[in-house]
Amino acid sequence: MPLLRLGVSLQPRWPLDDGASVLRAALHAEDLGFDHVAVGNRLLDSGFGLDTDPLVLLSAVAGATTRLRLLTSVLVAPYYPALVLANQAATLDVVSGGRLILGVGTGWNPDEFDAVGVPARERGARTDDHLAAAKALWTRRPADFDGPFTTLRAAHLGVPPVTAGGPPVWVGGYSDAALRRALRFGDGWYGVGADAAEVTDVRRRLGDLAGAENTDRLTLASAAFLTPPGLPAAVAPPGRPLGGTAPTAVSVADDLGRLAEAGLTACTLWLPVAADHVEKAMEWVAAEVAPRLT
Fold first, then answer.
1. What residues contact residue 41 under an 8 Å CB cut-off, 6+ apart?
2. % of the chain at pLDDT higher than 70
3. Is 140 buried (19+), middle (13-18) or exposed (0-12) by CB count in 10 A?
4. Contacts of 211 (CB under 8 A, 6+ apart)
5. Could you say which of 38, 67, 122, 215 would form a disulfide bridge with 73 (CB–CB 3.0 to 4.6 Å)?
6. Are 69 and 101 in contact (CB under 8 A)?
7. What's the whole-model pTM score?
């Protein structure tokens, strides 16, 4: 079976009177051998989990860990001016020693777009503009850039990234526009709740859209939902759970194996359990599921 790297989302609603609990969970994930941790991007309370700025929280995680990769899952690129996005991502790339993976998407929440004063109808164009400008700032000193929303003249980014070319970018989304964005700006594609058939279809569509371009350079990754047996779900998973509605170690490993055979190389486990059950959930995956993937 192809190697599948497993990560875990730091998405539960952590207790506000113990802010270090999320950092302890990240350190435990590292000790258990997980590949990465992931943090989503919400500005307003979703009622669904941890609603923090991913770059801020992952900076704290970077200081608490030494090996774990740090994934924004996903950062809504139109919320951040291009220069701010490029500088914040480069800063985290530096302080983490090159462990940042910048998962990006166009966003969807009309209330948040209204709150930040960004027209939702421009989200795709702004994402393209901001990624192109960030790439210019990460690769050229000085950088000139002319886009519909960003203009740079002889700009020197405040801190150059430690990763050559900037942190790897995983582009989220299933539309043709999202796949073209992954081909143009990305180092990978990032899905949500994708099954093996969807991963296979994304690979085919990327190849069709790329033409003669080789798409093997792109990492294929996805978030997946898992409530381990014996642990109560705090919220309903927003998609089909790994291993079905009554998962076992065998059924979860079988689902992950099919994803790997379809071409997925990284999977972020979104655990819809209460914060005080997250470490138990990670321990079950590490002890019961991960050994079956070798």
1. 53, 54, 72, 74, 75, 76, 79, 107
2. 98
3. middle
4. none
5. 38
6. yes
7. 0.96
